[in-house]
């Protein structure tokens, strides 16, 4: 989420395996909230409009892979991700 806030697209996402390892440590009600928040997180990645950095700012220089993509609709994407951030920070 910090990468999107900073103007780039993350090259690594929260995997299903990592997420489902967390669930046994949550209570029943909290587990449902976490699952709903994770679904919104995955949906946010599907609605993200991504451009290559060079398409937006042409140059002859090279850039690192993590910084080579930008999200053109970051507000919409971050809004969908907020519920997961809130649940994980509890």
Descriptive overview:
By secondary structure, this protein is mainly alpha-helical. 56% of the residues lie in helices and 7% in strands. Strands 1-2 form a two-stranded antiparallel sheet. It is elongated and about 55 Å long. The two termini are 17 Å apart.
Radius of gyration: 15 Å
Number of helices: 5
Overall form: elongated
Got a strand count? 2
What value does the average pLDDT take? 81
How many structural domains can be distinguished in the coordinates?
A: 1
Measure the end-to-end span: 17 Å
> Considering DSSP H and I runs of 4 or more, what fraction of the residues is helical?
55-70%
Specify the oligomeric state.
single chain
Largest sheet: 2 strands, antiparallel
């Amino acid at each position: 989420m910090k990468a999107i806030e900073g103007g780039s697209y993350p090259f690594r996402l929260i995997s299903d395996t990592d997420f489902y390892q967390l669930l046994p440590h949550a209570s029943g009600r909290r587990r449902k909230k976490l699952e709903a928040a994770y679904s919104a997180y995955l949906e946010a990645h599907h609605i993200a409009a991504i451009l290559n950095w060079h398409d937006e700012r042409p140059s002859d220089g090279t850039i690192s892979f993590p910084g080579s993509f930008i999200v053109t609709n970051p507000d919409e994407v971050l809004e969908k991700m907020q519920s997961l951030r809130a649940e994980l920070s509890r």
